[in-house]
Amino acid sequence: MRGIILAACAILVACNSKTPEKSAASDTAATDTMAAPTPPPDSGNEIHITTNAASYAPGAAVGISIHNATAHQFAFNPCTRHFEREAHGEVTEPNRMCTMEAWLLDPNGTRDVSVTLPAAIEPGTYQVRIDFAAQDQSGLQVHATSNPFQVTSDK
What we know:
Layout: H1 2-16, H2 24-34, E1 47-51, E2 55-56, E3 61-68, E4 74-76, E5 82-85, E6 89-91, E7 103-105, E8 110-116, E9 124-134, E10 141-145, E11 149-151
Parallel strand pairs: 2-11
Antiparallel strand pairs: 1-3, 3-8, 4-7, 4-9, 5-6, 5-9, 9-10, 9-11
């Protein structure tokens, strides 16, 4: 009896494991169903931040333009921005106070914002990072970074 059951299982497996014909439609379908879900962007691929200059002095205002290349509306607070120094991580400002406000960035929209560098920031190469949250049920969060820029010595 055991042998009959094993033989039946082997036949079922063999019958169900046919190799599908190759076609563009079947390749696409197989790829779509087997592909892992795309993680939310974390490097600004969907939201682009550009600075208005290539270098700034410590304490200077940095003009940035933020462009949303998605169909989502996002909220952000430019006050809670981060300055990331190349090869040294994030620059923090321990006594910085921000109001809880949400600026809206419409789908395919652009906002111009000014953020201020800390007065005691060290010279080096930096990027501005701003965090965005979609204003719909998608739960999408984006952490976008600007182009690199130089902070020069003010001396």
